[in-house]
Amino acid sequence: MMEAKPAKHFPPKGGKKLALKDSPGKAVGIKPGGKKPIKPYINKEMKGKLGKSGNNNTKHKLAEDQKGPKKKKFPVDKDDGDSPGKAVGIKPGGKKPVKPYIKKERKGKLEKSADNNKKHTFAEDGKGPNKRTFPVDKDDGAPQAKKFKKGKFKPERQTDEELKNRLQKKKDLKMKRQQASRKDKFEIINQAKLLWGDLRVKKCDRDLKNKLMKALHELFRGKYKEMAFAHDTTRMLECFIQFGSHEQRQEVFEATKDDILLLSKSRYGRNVVKKLLMYGNKELVGAVIQTFKGHVRVMLRHALASSIIEDIYTDKALPAQKQMLKEELYGTTYTVCKSSVCDTVHKVVEANPDKRNFIINDMQKILTPMAQKEQVIKNSLVHKVFLDFFLLSPDKQRAEMIESIRESVIYMAHTHAGARVAMHCLWHGTAKDRKVIIKTMRTYMVKVATEEFSHLALLAMFDCVDDTRLIKQAVLSEIMSSLDEVVDNKYGKKVLLYLLTPRDPAHLLPEIIKVLEQGDGNAHSKKDKTSRWKELLEFVSPLLLDYLHNNAAKMAMSKASSVLVKAILAASACGDLRPAMTAVAHLANQKLIPGGIDGEFHMAEHPAGHIVLKWLIEQDVMLAKAGREECFARILVDTVDQDNLKTWVQVNRGTVVLCSLLKSCDQTVVAEVKAALHFFELDSNNSSIGAQILMSNLKKIASV
Q: How far is CA 172 from CA 122, 167, 175, 176, 179, in A?
């Protein structure tokens, strides 16, 4: 039998073959079976070291006596016999320790050789080359910067002719590159540019415009597709579409209709599509919209093409065309079940209740990825489909969708459908979902409060979020810090009025109140809504009272913000009303001159100011019922001098305010006003309807 070969042992990578001194049974030249354990280096116990062979290609040989290589002998120091010294010319076995650098002990510095091929040598004097020294500033002792010779590094000045020649060379070089790339179309494009430059001038008359358009038409005919994609020729084509006739626009569309989708994705070509939509007639616009059928999802996900879909859906598409664009986002089940009678998703679900879950599942699969892309989630078309999903979906799938889009709600609240999607997310979302939505709106609260649709999301937030502390810190504090902007805005004012008087029909449309009522009784709001409103009012009311005190003239004499004055000084207000009431009353403490001074009316004659006075006087009844001590009529009579009060009878609006004072719930006010008007009689100067009513009221009081 053949003997089995011994197992081959491989040395460690980069290692050397070693023969162990004390290991018996190892044949000379045979590599040991395993790795040799690393023995700690001890200088005294070092017994040998491999000698390096003169020829690098030959392997190291073991000593003949199998005891390893001979030891290196070092001369012994005479003073200390135990410390071996270095052998002359032999490098010691270990690394020499690095000596710390000490400036004083520096013995030399490399001196740069004149010949670059030679090695650097130490300077003979041991000091190295001298340092460069710069002149020292006398004031602070710091070295001055190196001074260069005047004009040494400045470019030579070019004459006007040289500069002109240089620019002309650049222009010629650019023309050559364009000519090489465009070849036969180069001359046509240059001629078109000259015509386009004259055509786009505002002072171009009709005859010249028709002549230029005819010449441009001859150049462009048959080349519309090539012109639509380049950055310079596309602008000429846009101008051609803008000033051209219907037949010329139709000709452009026929030449490019197969590439409308590519043009919509092009950085420059998409402007051609926009011009066709902007200046085309109904038939042309409908034909352009029809080219997007079946490609809406792809176009929505494209950064450039999504803006085309947005323009079509919001500005150009008819209801039937809008429905055609949305169909692709409803899924295949809807496409199979739809008919001419059931053409909307709600009608299809109503006619086919067994298909409801399939349609909802299809919509969820399509819409969920869209929520992750900012460019898609901002589109109005997507918002409408999301709203349809929330109106149809059951609780479980609705909760899953809210969790997936809660960080993107801020991008949806600016549209009609998107604002209602945000309201649904707040109504039906968990406490965590609501917290995430509110935090994503931070730094945008003023913008949200002052937009037409997004302010409704804030109203829904005030209705359903139980964490009023979070609303105060994240929402109201930001709005209150920008009251000047919010008060002057039409929609910002509604937000403040809702905080002061929630769901008041005087400030909100009945349709909006019905929409807000949809969130009542949701599963995640535990706190009573009246207590929630009261907590928010306690935070807002003192801040608004202070703002009214400092800006009484601005608010009381403005038609837009005068409504806020009545709401701020209502019976439900929290805090002392007297400072704000006194500030409003001081505005009326002036002599009334009919017609005003320099166009500025007295408050009793001002269209908004006299209404504010009338409202606040009539509101004293509600304050008395609420048990409050403040009375605006009392403060007004105490603030306004009687001589100034008498002048109010000269104008119709002033008599209206005086009639309100005579009907005050405070009888002392009635007596003082009656005493001040004892002289009043009807004459040719005081014959207005308000004066007649005032006279009849005085007679009734006198007869009592």
A: 60, 9, 5, 6, 10
The answer for residues whose C-beta is within 8 angstroms of residue 391's C-beta and 6 or more apart is: 346
**C-beta of residue 644 within 8 angstroms of C-beta of residue 688:** no
User: What is the C-alpha separation between 384 and 390, in angstroms, rounded?
Assistant: 10
Cα separation, 506 vs 486, in Å, equals: 19
**Residue 495 Cα distances to 411, 487, 540, 608, 662, angstroms:** 20, 9, 11, 21, 35
Residue with tokens 């002792």: 141
Tally of CA atoms within 13 A in the half-sphere of 701 that contains its CB = 22
C-alpha span between 593 and 597 (Å, rounded): 7
Tokens 């520096």 appear where? 106
Predicted local confidence at residue 47, as pLDDT: 46
Q: For residues 75 and 87, is the Cβ–Cβ distance under 8 A?
A: yes
- Cα separation, 504 vs 369, in Å, equals 40
pTM for this entry: 0.72
HEC profile of 177-202: HHHHHHHHHHHHHHHHHHHHHHHCCC
Top-ranked range on mean pLDDT: pick from 40-44, 134-138, 191-195: 191-195
The answer to whether 600 and 589 have CB atoms below 8 angstroms apart is: no
pLDDT higher than 50, residue 601: yes
Round the average pLDDT of the chain to a whole number and report it.
82
- Let me know if 183 is exposed, middle or buried by CB neighbors in 10 A (0-12, 13-18, 19+): exposed
Other beta carbons within 10 Å of 24 = 5
Do residues 246 and 213 lie in contact, with contact meaning Cβ atoms separated by under 8 Å?
no
Name the residue with tokens 């008087």.
501
Is residue 350 helix, strand or coil? helix
Q: Does residue 498 carry a pLDDT above 90?
A: yes
* Res 515: pLDDT: 95
CB 592 within 8 A of CB 641: no
Helix, strand, coil % over all residues of the chain, rounded to 5: 55, 0, 45
Question: 678 is written with which tokens?
Answer: 């004892």
Residue 564: its H or E element? helix 562-568
Residue 84, beta-bridge partner list: 76
Helix (H, G, I), strand (E, B) or coil at 122: strand
Q: Which element (helix H / strand E) includes 138?
A: none
- pLDDT of 138 strictly over 90: no
Token pair in block for residue 304: 């450039």
DSSP annotation of 154 reads: S
pLDDT band at 86 (very low <50, low <70, confident <90, very high): very low
Q: Distance between CA atoms of 200 and 209, rounded to whole angstroms?
A: 9
- Contact between 458 and 448 under an 8 Å Cβ cutoff? The reply is yes
The two beta strands, 121-122 and 110-111, are antiparallel
Please give the average per-residue pLDDT across 320-339, as a whole number. Answer: 92
CB 386 within 8 A of CB 425: no
Between 138 and 282, the higher pLDDT residue: 282
CA end-to-end span of the chain: 146
Distance CA 636, CA 216 (A): 75
pLDDT over 90 for what percent of the chain?
A: 53
Closest CA to 437 of 452, 423, 450: 423
**Alpha-carbon distance 648 to 610, whole Å?**
11
Q: What is the pLDDT of residues 244-290, one digit of tens each?
A: 999 999 999 999 999 999 999 999 999 999 999 999 999 999 999 99
Q: To which residue do tokens 């006619």 refer?
A: 351
**C-alpha closest to that of 408 among 387, 448, 436:** 436
Helix 632-639, helix 609-618: angle, nearest 10: 130
The whole-number pLDDT of residue 64 equals 46
Beta bridge partners, 110, equal 122
Q: What is the DSSP letter of 354?
A: G
Tokens 């740069």 belong to which residue? 112
